[in-house]
Prior knowledge:
Transmembrane segments: 26-45, 51-71, 92-112, 118-138, 159-182, 220-237, 243-263, 279-296
Largest sheet: none
Number of helices: 14
Pathway: Porphyrin-containing compound metabolism; heme O biosynthesis; heme O from protoheme: step 1/1
Order of helices and strands: HHHHHHHHHHHHHH
Helix content: over 70%
CATH superfamily of the largest domain: UbiA prenyltransferase
Strand content: under 5%
GO molecular function: protoheme IX farnesyltransferase activity
EC number: 2.5.1.141
Protein name: Protoheme IX farnesyltransferase
Amino acid sequence: MTVTTAPSPTVPAHARDFLALTKPRVMTLVVFTGLCGMLAAPVRIDPVLGFTAILCIALGAGAAGALNQWYEADLDAKMRRTERRPLPAGRMDRETALQFGVGLSAFSVILMGLAVNLVAAAILTVSILFYVLVYTVWLKRRTPQNIVIGGAAGAFPPLIGWAAATGSVAPLPLLLFALVFLWTPPHFWALALFMRSDYGAAGIPMLPVVAGERVTRRQIGLYTIPMALTALAPWALGLSGLLYGVVALVTTGVFAGLVVHVATRTTGPDDRMVPEKRLFAWSILYLFIVFGAVVADKWLV
């Protein structure tokens, strides 16, 4: 495989380039699900420790994003969606990105362990290593199942938040972990359907590139079934109340309706993939609403 290296930077990296390395838009959802895991816990954490834990989750997520961009600079240079990132655009060198990612990783884990507790620090460590080593290094370039297995990387924050508050894990945060894990394939495969040419140009074996649209659409539908059951499980098992149950039922129903449209349609050469874009956009909002309902169910009912 021919590796495309990023241009050598001609000026020092700007602060906004370091921020871009952390993938702030992705971090928003990570921080939110971590915060919800913490607030849903049966104990109240000291506000200072709670803020510290959320800061560590954000820094850990940012560190993983930076190491991902360090390793994938050659792929990012081949994709329109990522070609303007600091490394492929030549605004930063790879060594700087590596040092930034490693330093941020170590700082987030050490701070979590010293200020909060070792259980939360251990789960944070696993989440960073899983995203960087398992997903980015091992799976991303090798298999169309990269998103399926790699989905666990983004599912750890509610476990970390819960562990920060309690020092342990429990069935509810494990179900929230499973929800994000099962949500990830429909979410990313919807994106991959309308970004198929980009992934193909970069040589990334995403499912639409390797197996085609029909298989991808069917897999989106199949993965939505256990995802929907998992979303309703906290209510069904008595781990959450009626408020959560109603919100989960309605929002998951909307999700399923969009999935049915995507899973059963065919496209032509000029298709703008509007249903796929709608599913992708709703899937992000869906996770915010469902996790918000977990907290609202505890604090408002």
